[in-house]
Design a protein that fits this description.
The structure holds two protein chains of two kinds. Chain A is α/β, with parallel strands linked by helices. Chain A folds into two domains: 8-216, no CATH class; 219-382, 2-Layer Sandwich (GMP Synthetase, Chain A, domain 3), CATH 3.30.300.210. Chain A is built from twelve helices and 13 strands. In chain A, a hairpin with a 5-residue loop joins strand 11 (247-262) and strand 12. Chain A is globular and about 80 Å long. Chain B has helices at residues 2-8, 16-26, 57-68, 78-87, 97-105, 152-162, 194-205, 215-222, 239-247, 268-271, 282-311, 319-329, 336-356, 359-372, 375-379, 385-399, 404-424, 426-442, 463-466; strands at 33-40, 44-51, 92-94, 109-113, 119-122, 168-175, 181-188, 234-236, 251-255, 261-264, 444-445, 448-449. In chain B, strand 1 (33-40) and strand 2 (44-51) form a beta hairpin. In chain B, helix 11 (282-311) packs antiparallel against helix 16 (385-399). The radius of gyration of chain B is 30 Å and the shape is elongated. In chain B, 35% of the residues are buried. The chains are: A alpha/beta, B alpha+beta. Chains A and B meet through strand 1 of A and helix 12 and helix 17 of B.
């Protein structure tokens, strides 16, 4: 119930644009919040445009530690003159140490507290979360924007709190994957214009029973995206070619279907069917797009590349981590509910033994504007 | 009062001197009363009475001269001969001084003749009047350019010219103890419900005032619910609007000395329609109608919604927008509600100043206004720039409504809703809206539900509200008319 005694003016709130959770010594948890500083841009706009990043998107990070999230938040509030405002917080970054320690307590608090957004994105940071929050990116006004925009591109995916809670409820071992990020270099100074920026996105963190148990690196993450149908358009498949040849395909769209089956003798099988379309992006190989036979070879190579990527990921997930972040469990539940009920207690062991069958077909439809290989064209002219 | 007058009503006497004495007594201290003696047929003394400036004196002199040459023989019947002669000037005979007064004030001249116990009225009314001009308050791009004037007879002629059938009735009455203002109730017989006309006549007859200066004076007397902020009659200065109303079976009330004519009964949707809706092509008109409905809501609700969101529901504002609002509000000392009130009040004050000021000073107001609601107010730190935007949009929106009377109602209602939104957030805003809807549902205009034809839903009629149907589509008359809901045209009328 709102009424005038509950009135909160915009001037009285500290708008949090990103939050970080870190593990401290002695079971303490550190909550950091990136808070927006509403500084009015002085002058008529044109003059203030001189200093880029100034005025617009100024933030600061404040942290507090406590035995629990609730206590940490209370302590954090003590240090601020304005009321903490979580309603616009779109980003939660969890430090690696905290993730390995377990994040169930934190999730409980975040999802229970009414002011929080359940559609907030969640990330695991290499090192500590508070370092990620401090970053002022060159392209976006603050780190929150940078991360959520990054998640929209083809190299990463968005995982929000709602999806995690769904996975916790639906999977027997509470398995899920969260994007794993690097804090990059602290590029806060203007002199760093030409310094290379370390990529933020580093792969996926794997969680099992509320604890992080491993990482997929960038390469393995491709396989993960392929299996879970999260490959986005504009993805580039660069093929491994002999000698100094290159062949790259720009994917326009793709669809992955998982087809579960249980053989009469009790073997659980999963068929991974991938269908996709792409255009040629680069070709300095000996293969000619216009030659049907070579075109087929080209497609075959592409399919092999994708298959290899998927196999690698499957191997790591099934044998090394025994963590089903691929939704296999859900497919089997829908396919054979009775058997699933029986087997779901020891799903992790069963998952590691599932036989997989790959069926990849990626069609390369267009050669791009250039029909022929540049080297070949030379040969013709001379 | 009437009984009293009938008893002591002095009649015109045969003796010219006695009549003259009586007239001079009653018109004492009326310096604009004029007396003009004449000799009928060179012998019989007579006298014209009239008011300077109201009567065509040139014409009067012509008549006077021609009278001089009348040939009266020395018989007893000279009176009859005279009366016959006079009739050729389309004269009417009156018997009492009361009648004389009402004729004089219409600009007519009254002739008294020695030996006759009657007065002869010459219709010579010719006073200075405004030319027919563009209707100022309701301009259209396409449509007739003439507007009503202050002269009742001209106004009636403008309507008569458009409805050339004897079914158009114009009933005249007089209201006002002193002004004796002429009021005309116009309707089309066969279209308007007789009960409606009877009701209007009944309500008009009950008015007892010293004077009627404008149709607004009448409007307040005959409204169903005088305490409602919504107008229950349309006032318009456009003859085409009036005629459209007549053809829909409505009644119109014309008042002398004002160009504003009242139309009744109406619903809220009549107030949101412009005559031009029917002159432009129907697609365009439909679009403009939707635009008008949208901005009706904008004018009513946007400042309140802004206040509610900013003080209670910051979650509902897109993140990037909230950050920029926070930035611009940082140095504002007032709560959002106070800020909104300051700006809205300033805007209303400026608008009113713009209306009242003489045209020469008007430019100054717009310059000052641009400074007050604009850059200067923002840089002075009094209001934030998003609030300036909100006020400007609201202002524009309220001017989009084709009838000033409903625009001003909306502007008035905006303030209580703003207060509710500031106290209870969106909940308060919703309470305000629900309150208005409840009030509108109960409101009647001469017995016709104010929200009709949407509530109660009248199939076939709501088309003209939701959109502007093509002119060749079958079209029903409003249900309150005599031929209630009959189809005006059939499909066959479009080739």
């Amino acid at each position: 119930m709102t009424s005038c005694w509950d009135r909160v003016e915009v001037n009285d709130i500290a708008i949090i644009v990103g939050a970080g959770i870190d593990q401290m010594d002695g079971k303490q948890v550190k909550l950091s919040a990136e808070i927006y500083i509403p500084v009015e841009s002085t002058g008529e706009g044109q003059e203030s445009g001189m200093k880029a990043g100034n005025g617009n998107g100024k933030t600061f990070v404040s942290s507090a530690a406590g035995s629990s999230m609730a206590e940490a938040m209370y302590k954090l509030q003590e240090r601020l003159s304005r009321k903490l405002y979580w309603g616009h917080n779109d980003i939660f970054v969890i430090g690696q140490a905290r993730a390995e320690h377990g994040i169930e307590d934190d999730l409980d608090f975040i999802l229970r507290y009414v002011r929080m957004r359940e559609r907030a994105n969640i990330y695991i940071a290499e090192g500590s979360a508070v370092d990620v929050l401090g970053i002022i990116p060159r392209l976006e006004p603050n780190s929150m924007e940078a991360l959520s925009e990054l998640s929209k591109t083809e190299i990463s995916i968005t995982v929000d709190l709602k999806e995690i809670i769904e996975r916790i409820v639906e999977t027997p071992d509470e398995t899920y994957a969260i994007p794993y990020i690097n804090r990059g270099k602290l590029l806060t100074d203007e002199s760093h214009v030409r310094n290379p920026n370390v990529p933020y996105f580093r792969g996926m963190s794997l969680f099992k029973k509320g604890k992080m148990n491993g990482n997929l690196n960038s390469d393995l993450t491709w396989g993960y995206f392929w299996i879970t149908n999260q490959i986005k358009g504009n993805t580039i498949i660069s093929l491994k070619m002999p000698e100094e040849q290159t062949l790259a395909v720009l994917l326009t769209h793709s669809k992955t279907t998982l087809i579960p089956s249980i053989t009469p003798d009790g073997k659980w099988k999963m068929k991974i069917k991938v269908r996709g379309e792409g255009n040629l992006l680069q070709n300095t190989s000996s293969l000619d797009f216009m030659n049907p036979a070579q075109h087929k070879a080209m497609i075959k190579k592409t399919n092999e590349e994708v298959e290899m990527s998927i196999r690698q990921t499957l191997k790591v997930l099934q044998k090394k981590y025994k963590t089903d972040v691929l939704d296999f469990g859900d497919r089997f539940r829908k396919h054979a509910p009775k058997q699933w009920q029986k087997e779901k207690k020891n799903w992790s062991t069963l998952f590691s033994e599932i036989e997989t069958e790959l069926d990849v077909e990626i069609n390369i439809q267009r050669p791009g504007i250039l029909n022929q290989n540049i080297k070949k064209m030379n040969r013709v002219n001379n | 009062m009437e009984a009293n007058a009938a008893k002591a009503e002095p009649r015109i006497s045969k003796d010219l001197e006695q009549s003259r004495h009586h007239i001079e007594q009653s018109l004492k201290d009326c310096s604009d009363a004029a007396y003009l003696s004449c000799k009928l047929g060179g012998k019989v003394p007579g006298m014209f009475v009239y008011f300077n400036g109201l009567t065509d004196e040139e014409r009067l002199n012509e008549i006077r001269h021609s009278m001089f040459s009348w040939d009266f023989s020395e018989t007893e019947e000279w009176l009859e001969t005279m009366e016959q002669e006079v009739t050729s000037f389309s004269c009417t005979r009156i018997e009492t001084f009361r009648e004389m007064m009402s004729q004089l004030t219409l600009g007519n001249a009254v002739l008294f003749v020695d030996g006759s116990d009657g007065g002869y009225v010459f219709s010579l009314g010719d006073w200075r009047k405004r030319a027919i001009e563009d209707p100022v308050a309701e301009s259209v791009i396409r449509g007739p350019r003439e507007g009503f004037t202050e002269t009742l007879d001209d106004n009636m002629s403008m309507i008569r010219r458009r409805i050339r059938t004897p079914s158009l009735k114009m009933k005249g009455i007089e209201i006002g103890e002193y002004t004796k203002t002429r009021i005309v109730i116009g309707y089309v017989e066969g279209l308007a419900a007789p009960e409606l006309i009877a009701e209007i006549e009944h309500r008009l007859a009950a008015i007892e005032v010293d004077g009627i200066l404008e149709s607004g004076n009448i409007e307040e007397f005959i409204e169903d619910q005088p305490y409602s902020p919504f107008p229950q009659l349309i006032s318009t200065e456009r003859p085409d609007t009036v005629v459209a109303g007549l053809l829909e079976g409505r009644a119109v009330i014309l008042t002398d000395n004002t160009p504003f004519v009242l139309i009744a009964p109406i619903s809220i949707f009549s107030l949101l329609q412009s005559p031009e809706d029917y002159y432009q092509r129907f697609l365009i008109s439909t679009f403009i109608r939707w635009l008008r409905y949208l901005f009706f809501l904008v004018a009513l609700l946007v400042p309140s919604a802004y206040v509610a969101l900013l003080t209670y529901h910051q979650e509902m504002i897109p993140s990037a927008l909230l950050l920029s609002i926070a930035k611009s509000r940082e140095s504002i000392p007032f709560p959002a509600l106070v800020e909104a009130f300051i700006m809205e009040t300033m805007f209303e004050a400026l608008r009113e100043a713009g209306v009242r000021l003489p045209k020469q000073v008007g430019a100054a107001v717009s310059i000052v206004g641009a400074l007050v609601i604009g850059q200067a107010a923002t840089s002075a730190g009094l209001v934030s720039s998003p609030m300036v935007m909100v006020v400007a949009i609201t202002g524009i929106a309220s001017f989009l409504l084709p009838h000033y009377s409903v625009g001003i109602s909306i502007r008035l209602l905006r303030f209580p809703i703003m207060l509710l939104a500031g106290v209870l957030g969106l909940l308060g805003l919703l309470m305000g809206v629900i309150g208005i809807v409840i009030h509108l549902s109960g409101l009647r205009s001469f017995g016709v539900p104010y929200l009709s034809p949407l509530a109660p839903l009248m199939a076939g009629e709501w088309q003209d509200v939701v959109m502007r149907p093509p002119a060749w589509k079958p079209n029903r008359r409003p249900r309150f008319t005599r031929s209630g809901g009959s189809i005006r045209r059939t499909k066959g009328s479009k080739l």
